[in-house]
Amino acid sequence: MPGNSVLINGDCGVEGQEFTIDHGFAEIHAHQFMIKGKPLHFNGFNAYWLMCMASDASSKAKVTDVFQQASKLGMNVVRTWGFSDGGNKPLQTSPGSYNEVMFKALDFVISEAKKYGLRLILSLVNNWDDFGGKKQYVQWARDQGHHLNNDDEFFSNDVTRGYYKNHVKNLLNRRNSITGVAYKDDSTIFAWELMNEPRCQSDLSGKTFEDWIVEMATHIKSIDKKHLLEVGHEGFYGESMPEKKQNNPGYEVGTDFISNNRIKNIDFATIHLYPDQWVPGASDEARDEFVKKWITSHIDDCKSVIGKPLLIAEFGRSSNTAGYKVEQRDAYFSSIFNMAYESAKSGGSCSGTTFWQVMAQGMENWGDGYQVVLEQNPSTAALIGKQSKKIASLASPMII
């Protein structure tokens, strides 16, 4: 793939060809990702909708179209959902019961990513109600006669923890119906994510959530020691180093960026970044200052305190913001791209970015204001392509 810093054997192939791309499993060396003796850096995107679109013959091609465009722009990683719990188009219809149509759709997403030289980060459950989330797990437990006071008991209740572990086991042991490779053995999957944007605001000490991470990370590694694992963190600081809470946007959420990412089975850290939501009413200058401070503090902490790589896993600029212009989004993307690149170039902890989010044409009803439709946004696409080339240029002997 042009610009990709992954190892590729053969070509991308076309429909019906054998899958010839060998991604190889990534490893961690200090605060950097490594692949076969070389540093691995990322320029990618989020696309939570992939499994849903792949489940319907009328929309399946949108997955292929977006992957094709991404590979042409040199992008090399995609973060998406490995869950859909209850509700519309469920992957998991009830605890331990699965919709084979949706599982085959996820099989397709993985096989297409392999064709186009893309790695996947698969998130395993949602903190939010969309696609079920922890709220659905709690409701399933209640439906079985168990008394749970609130959705945060997802983290502490024996029944919901058992449901989650079972989902992990079923997903990791799934054998892809297209490639024949079990998910736990497929290097197309770069990493597992414990949860999308976990929060446990009923226990701001962070203990409830930390205990959950330890248990679930141990469970995942008992099944799959090949893949990397990350928490799904937004980056909020907590009680382990309270002086760092000054970097939070004025509140905390029951997570602890430092102690959560120090857990031995967690391989790398992530942060998200939404200044328009987190610091509402602030001036553009104040938001820009928050962004710079948020990223810099986490890059520094990952190198000097945590000792693991960092991925800036979500950021975007909403078109729903008053006075929005594409040029503003491009400038925002450019500033974050540059911070990630400069860190990677100097041997820092940040190994890349995955912005929120890419959508295909004809998905207007799915939009949240942050979506980038690549064909309709040539200036943004050009910026992404430029970043891919810069990131790929770093694939040389490791800097320590």
Give structural notes.
- With 400 residues, the chain is an alpha/beta fold.
- It has one domain (27-392): TIM Barrel (Alpha-Beta Barrel), CATH 3.20.20.80.
- It is built from eleven helices and 13 strands.
- The chain has helices at residues 50-54, 61-72, 100-115, 133-143, 158-172, 207-223, 257-262, 275-278, 284-306, 326-345, 378-392; strands at residues 27-29, 32-35, 38-39, 42-46, 77-81, 92-94, 97-98, 119-123, 189-193, 228-230, 269-273, 310-315, 350-355.
- The protein has an eight-stranded parallel beta sheet.
- Helix 10 links the parallel strand 12 (310-315) and strand 13.
- Helix 5 (158-172) runs parallel beside helix 6.
- The chain is globular.
Main features:
single chain; alpha/beta; TIM Barrel; eight-stranded parallel sheet; 13 strands
CATH topology: TIM Barrel
Spatial strand arrangement across the major sheet: 10-9-8-5-4-13-12-11
Q: What's the level 1 CATH class? A: Alpha Beta
Unreliable stretches, pLDDT < 50, 5 or more residues? 1-20
How many extended strands? 13
Number of folding domains? 1
CATH architecture: Alpha-Beta Barrel
Q: How many helices in DSSP terms?
A: 11
* Proportion of residues in helical segments: 25-40%
Global morphology: globular
Q: Which homologous superfamily in CATH is the superfamily?
A: Glycosidases
Q: What is the typical, i.e. mean, pLDDT? A: 93
Strand share of the residues?
5-15%
Distance between the termini: 27 Å
- What is the N-to-C order of secondary-structure elements (H for helix, E for strand)? EEEEHHEEEHEHHEHEHEHHEHEH
Question: If you compute it from the alpha carbons, what radius of gyration comes out, rounded to the nearest whole angstrom?
Answer: 20 Å
| Structure class | alpha/beta
In this structure, how is the largest beta sheet organized? 8 strands, parallel
